[in-house]
Amino acid sequence: MSILVTGGAGYIGSHTVVELLEKGEELVIVDNFVNSKPEVLDKLRKITNKDFKFYEVDLLDEENLEKVFQENDIESVIHFAGLKAVGESVQKPIEYYHNNITGTLVLLKLMKKYNCKRIVFSSSATVYGDPEIVPITEKCKVGNTTNPYGTSKLFIERILQDVCFSDKEFSVALLRYFNPIGAHKSGLLGEDPNDIPNNLMPYILGVAKGKYEILNVFGNDYPTKDGTGVRDYIHVVDLAKGHLKALDKIRKEAGTQIYNLGTGNGYSVLELVETFKRVNNIDVKYRITDRRPGDIAVCYADPSKAKQELGWVAEYGVEEMCKDSWNFAVNN
Ligand code: NAD
Ligand code: UFG
User: Would the CB of 245 count as within 6 Å of ligand 2?
Assistant: First the structure.
């Protein structure tokens, strides 16, 4: 019996694969490398000294994805594969909806055909839109997403809930991630986007390495402590561990479970930049620019449901996140 990890060569997927292999799980990974590199697979073997099966397959390619189900006894799926660049999704809505939603539908069709009834899904705090209150609990209203990427997550959450409703043996965990940063302690795995990064930490790393000249801080007129946007940054290894806890839960219980995976702490852009500079003893030049369209002021989690029901809490603080991100950047 194996766990199928879609998007397992990606940033969060690869860190989760390490945790799963270290726990002794049998894995089958599927990725098309649209936003990752094949070298990651060797690094996973090197870190864990364990092996797994890998298929270079696009989720949209039903015929080849079916072979994965034919050749393996898949008991659960952890579904990371998706396109995730918010700005790009506004330019390319059809590609985003097709890849993320159709990809999930193809996967679900095959899961049904091969009687696989458990899935952990990578959702996002973006489904809350501009939150009415912070910290955000799972009871907060979802919707009013501001871009096709976020809307694809919202729709997939709904599709998975409908599947659960139709089949009482089906179990789903919707994990709403806040802002993952940081990297594996080995320095071998981390966030390594194929394009110019949209997200804050990969951009800070680019400036610190001299690849980009200056960081644009998008707005300092938000109603926050220093005017810059506040987010709940979470170490990717903590996030990865949350998936194992969620999997344990859905192995025991049918139905839909929803969890925020965050730390519960909000840091501003400038706080993150200053922490990065201090702990790594390196300068990061920045300038204040206009707000980025679609951004919200403040977003951080109430993670108490995950603590109570899964026994999961984020352990690493923001200093560790900044150190580990930099350790990865200098090693790659
Ligand atoms: P990532 O781009 O590093 O990983 C996604 C992986 O999926 C990549 O390896 C990519 O090649 C693969 N992929 C994409 N489309 C595919 C397809 N059609 N078939 C096969 N493989 C495909 O991204 P990540 O940061 O690791 O994110 C993983 C998941 O978590 C995504 O679904 C993302 O939307 C979600 N998420 C990420 C964040 C974040 O800030 N990183 C926040 C919330 C949610
Ligand atoms: N920011 C800058 N300059 C940059 C990049 C970002 O100032 O070059 C600021 C943003 O304005 C925001 C903060 O840094 O205030 C964080 O921005 P990110 O782009 O890193 O992250 P977001 O909160 O916008 O979105 C991320 C993911 C989404 C996910 C969401 C969940 O990109 O996929 O977190 O909270 F849905």
Answer: no
pTM confidence score: 0.98
Q: Which atom of ligand 2 is nearest to the CA of 228?
A: 15
The candidate with the shortest Cα–Cα distance to 249, out of 314, 176, 312, 302, is 312
Q: How far is CA 29 from the centre of its chain?
A: 16
Distance CA 171, CA 76 (A): 9
Whether 222 is catalytic is no
The dihedral of CA 284, 288, 289, 295: what is its sign? Answer: positive
DSSP secondary-structure letter at 138? T
CB distance 152 to ligand 1 below 6 Å: no
Tens of pLDDT along 266-300? 999 999 999 999 999 999 999 999 999 889 999 99
Q: Is 23 helix (H, G, I), strand (E, B) or coil?
A: coil
Q: Which residues pair with 175 in a beta bridge?
A: 122, 259
The 8-class DSSP code of residue 293 comes to T
Q: Average pLDDT, stretch 240-253? A: 98
Distance of alpha carbon 13 from alpha carbon 44, whole angstroms: 11
Residues 144-174 as b or e (16 or more Cβ within 10 Å = b): ebbbbbbbbbbbbbebbeebbeeeeebbbbb
DSSP lists the bridge partners of residue 287 as: 216
How much distance in Å is there from the Cα of 49 to the middle of ligand 2? 34
* CA gap 328, 311 in Å, rounded: 29
